[in-house]
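User: Structure tokens for this complex, please. No commentary.
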Amino acid sequence: MSYCVHCGVELDPSLKKCPLCNTPVLDPNNIPYFETSSPYPAQRGKVEPVRRKDVAIFVSVLLLTISLTCGLLNRLVFSRNLWSLLVIGFCLIIWVICIPFIFYRKLTPYFAVLLDGLAVSFYLYLISRLTGSADWLYYLGLPITLLFTLLLEIFMLLTLKLSHSFFSVTLYIFSLIPLSCIGIELLCRNFLGSPMRITWSAIVLTVCIVFIIAIVTIILLPRVREEARRRLHF
Amino acid sequence: MSKNKRVKKPVRTTWYKLDLSAIVYPTLQRRDFSSVYRLSVLLKEPVKPDVLQKAVDMVLPRFPTYKSAIRKGLFWRYLEPNNRPGPFVQRDINNPCMPMPFKANNRYLLRIYYYDCRISLEAHHSLGDGTGGMYLLQTITAQYLRELGASIRCGGFVLDIHEEPDPGELEDAYMRYSNADVRPPRPSEKTYRVRGTKEPFYTLNIINGILSAQEVKKVAKTYHVTITEYLNAVLLYALLQKQESENPHRRLPVRIAMPVNLRRFFPSKTLRNFITMIYPSVDPRLGEYTFEEIVLHVHNYMQYYINEKLLRGDITTNAATQRHPLIRIVPLFLKDFVVRLFYTRVQDKNSSAGLTNMGALKVPEDMIPYLERFDICMGQPFSSRTNCAIISFQDALTIGFASSIKEADVERYFFRKLVQDGIHVTIESNRETS
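Assistant:
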């Protein structure tokens, strides 16, 4: 029988250290105390994974059925143009969005956002095929999709790697909103052949800068931060 | 047989509403958290798993609310009978009270483990409280011993498995007794929260202290209080010391969340939840408390709060929310959102630690020679703190601490105080101390 010299408690013969203060058990007589079996098993348990297969199958079958039936309807009844491509593309977007929630939960959020961006780009491509015009796709549709995918990736990175408190997330949102507005305005001007300068997005930028400075002040001053937390708690 | 005479599947008419406490537990379910508790019994001989499985299969139909699965309705969750195979006994693991996803384990919200001489039962709190779980564990143990040739009579926590379940065992007893004319408001204040390094997922640190119940009783008597009051005071004392060591300049009230078994005050046979929480506390901002003052404070608090009148008022307050017609028609996902928000932002911050005392267990006379002691584990805490659970059988009083943080400061202060008071403590742990 061993006692912890600091805590004064008797230790189970299987313990090599006191679990309360980590003081090692030193027995001058060198009794092989560690050979005694522990009252706790060594094997660790893991939760049985939940079968989400049924929901995944149901969602896939439902989306596939909608796509197929619309395709057939388009081919056999209303065959003036390829309108079913819009429905099929929309079903594909929903399916891709569902991937991290239903099909593959281990998918990293960064890759999931990238896949969503690709799905939206493909949908825009289908629209361009249907309308027969490609200019807007290459100069407006795809660049805006790329811009939003990039900003979402940055937002993910900030919230997952840096602080994700209420004020920090608000700060990220107010920083990314003007970037997206400036990007949209410049891309629209480029597409329309107008001079490359910012107008309405400058107003958004100004408003957001005011909010950003206010939030940074709140974050940097602990007393103001506590006061704001108290007043704004929900 | 004629082709027209098809065997019809019986229409499933049996289902159970979740009781008032059970409504909250599934809402708090996360990928890494479930409200699961563990009760264990240590026998004098190693457990035979095949016999234990047979005993479980024989006993479980007697406990219909435990042989059930949880389902979602539009407005509330409910329990329905589960006739899938299982639950199967399994070899015990190092990290008890793992999360319990509702769709895993053939939808059973129970786990039964064996290891050496120990049988352990883990149950989701939405099925019932510790008393209900103890009925199940003792009935399984009695049947296991009977299968091995022992003659065990029913009584106490051992139910007759050949009897039909009493409707009283399945009732939501809260609804019967929540009939006070007023609804006393519940105090809520930000309290001290134990800070520590969070352990990785799937780690639950257990430290069990085994004491002599007679010794503890003798020491509690010197302070003129009961064992529960004394141990509550020791835990408050440990938490105060921990707060002092962390930040002596910013002190907050230290409060313990302690479930009270309502069956002591309101006669009920229910095997489901029938507990309410009380919050003994001390506020170090008022001045420094000596241990004797803490003991006296806890004693006075318990004397004032633990009585039929105030407890009835408390459960009436709780039941009022569930009975409110506007709340009842809100869809479940909205209720889940609001309850989770309230729990995380208010309820969880309302206490510094949890403490439960199952008290001195009574078992049938015939069973006593086969049993060594009982252990209890309150389960994984919702936030990074420590939970303490106490149970005693004959002269063995077990105090089990469960925490998901690396530091064992609260446990150390707690057990050192007991040693200082002259109580002999033996420590067991699953912590990796090698």
